[in-house]
Amino acid sequence: MELRQLKYFVKVAETLNFSEASKALFVTQSTLSQQIKQLEDSLGTMLLSRTSHSVNLTEAGMELLPHARQTLLDAEMCEQRIRDLDKGLGGVLNIGVTYSFSPILTESLFTFMKEFPKVKLNILYKPMAELMELLVDHQLDFVLAFKPNKPIPGVESHYLFQNYLAAIAADSHPLASEKTVTPEMLEKYDLALPSPGLQARNTLDCMAGNLISRLKIKIELNEVNILLKLIREGKLVSVLAEATVLNESGITAIPIEGEGCEMDGCVHTLRDTYRKRSMQEFIKILSSSLSVKARQNAWL
Description:
Oligomer: single chain
Distance between the termini: 59 Å
Strand content: 15-25%
Radius of gyration: 24 Å
Number of strands: 12
Shape: elongated
Order of helices and strands: HHHEEHEHEHEEEEHEHEEEHH
Strand order of the largest sheet: 4-3-5-12-6
């Protein structure tokens, strides 16, 4: 049994399609089939049931799959530990980022790339729920996002800065003159809100409860930059974390009063797993960045 064979088996098991798996692995279908056959021969049992129309896991294949995934993960972590013994960091760092954290991340990216040029950065922007699934599946090293409303099994949330939910309006909008707003006050205005599933929207939905059905929601978007462009035009109001718009011109963030308005910025990691040195260095740079410090000071 070889690691390569286990890697090939896992990919076929995930796709249940030899053609898709071979493309993802950058090998020919014949090579893939041969390696799977050799793995089955070495184990003395069939792992995949193949017909002209479908591929399915046998009972032995279903039993092997979680162990094969863990073996590949252990091998990757072993390789990473050896790499980390080298003073010059290398390898790959996989970072998940929610859309709201984009302006916070940029400064740290440039600093990290300058200090550790041998590390390749893979950065993925998605809603928090999707990123957490990838983190738990070991496809990401850490995630930058606000603290979830409910704890996620196996995930640790490390505090970066405190933040609050805010109504976002153009400087010329009547709401911009208010010092604070309540969810009930939002009923008077046309709203452009983040899409359901995004953390700011999750927080608003929890705060507003049944009120959410009475709000005049004209647009829902999962792209913060477009939301801000709509807000600057002066007619619509949005609801976002205050940190999302810090230092943005032409718009005002008005804190929303009420229980559950807190939105703490966090670094999310897996519990009880090896942490790459490159990840530790990146988080250190992020924690001391001007972007994070500005948000730490914003509500003092």
